[in-house]
Design brief:
Blueprint (H helix, E strand, L loop, with lengths): L11 E5 L22 H10 L4 E5 L9 H9 L4 E5 L7 H10 L1 E7 L11 H12 L3 E5 L2 H14 L2 E4 L17 H6 L5 E6 L8 H13 L7 E4 L13 H11 L3 H15 L7
């Protein structure tokens, strides 16, 4: 096992996945990997780009079996944190085990799924338990639906992290009225945004910059922005690379002070990353 001593934070990649192609996959999945994405490969990318820490996010095709991700977290406790996928009825004892491994939140990956149900008693109680742990609820869904999902989470007292710029349609150059509900919500102090995977919304650098201006104008300032590589870029492996995403960030946020916030200060605070003195 790697050392548990804190190390200097030079950057945090807050969104990556690890898996093996031979792991059991859930029915109804949108994607089936035909290759392995190992934690050692991920850490190799971090090392090459001078990034000290990473956050592993449970991929949707593995469902609620977080064991492969948890094993990676336990192997590298000083460098990695995790976001799990769970059922609302998960016992507190299992949440305790996830926390012990370095998990600091849960994910709702709702792309391609029917909405509804998050105001039920079971989900509200889970969100309250997440809030009591000071964890986060990460949401992946297209922009027009996020406010509906985020509202009961915020009402529970939990923190919301929005994946991938909120997956705006058409780069959000001319936002439809349905997007306004999300923009109106962004000023809430417990909402964070991952500036990750712009390619999943077909955004180039110019469009991503436009979305970033909208986010800032709506009240979500750079002290609640995060960056993630989205490695290994599932479904886009042939088009994207870690180096591409690193370069995209440098161009999107050219100001060094703001980029330092996004890479170091913000994720260290949100993901409970101990920093060496």
């Amino acid at each position: 096992m790697s050392s548990t001593l804190p190390i200097v934070v030079t950057g945090v990649d807050t969104h990556a996945h690890v898996f093996r192609a031979d792991l059991p996959l859930v029915p109804g999945r949108r994607y089936s990997p035909d290759y392995d994405a190992s934690v050692d490969s991920f850490l190799g990318h971090l090392n090459l780009h001078g990034v000290s820490h990473g956050v592993l996010v449970q991929p949707s095709f593995l469902g609620t079996d977080n064991s492969f991700m948890v094993a990676a977290l336990r192997q590298h406790p000083s460098r990695l944190r995790g976001i799990a996928v769970v059922e609302p009825e998960i016992p507190d004892s299992e949440l305790d085990q996830l926390a012990d491994a370095g998990v600091v939140g849960i994910r709702l990956n709702l792309v391609g799924k029917a909405l509804g149900g998050f105001t039920t008693k079971a989900w509200r109680q889970l969100f309250e338990r997440i809030a009591a742990r000071d964890w986060q609820v990460e949401i992946q869904r297209s922009a027009e639906d996020i406010a509906e999902i985020a509202t009961p989470v915020l009402e529970s007292g939990a923190t919301v992290v929005i994946d991938h710029f909120g997956l705006p349609e058409d780069g959000n150059e001319k936002p439809a009225p349905m997007h306004h509900a999300l923009l109106d919500l962004l000023a809430h102090g417990r909402i964070w945004m991952k500036l990750s995977a712009a390619y999943r919304s077909g955004m180039n650098l110019t469009r991503a910059g436009h979305v970033l201006k909208q986010i800032r104008s709506a009240g979500l300032e750079h002290d609640r922005w995060l960056w993630g590589s989205d490695w290994p870029h599932t479904r886009h492996e042939s088009e994207q690379s870690y180096a591409d995403q690193w370069r995209f960030l440098q161009q999107l946020i050219p100001d060094h002070a703001e980029r330092s916030k996004v890479l170091i200060d913000n994720p260290s605070r949100l993901f409970r990353i101990d920093t060496a003195s």
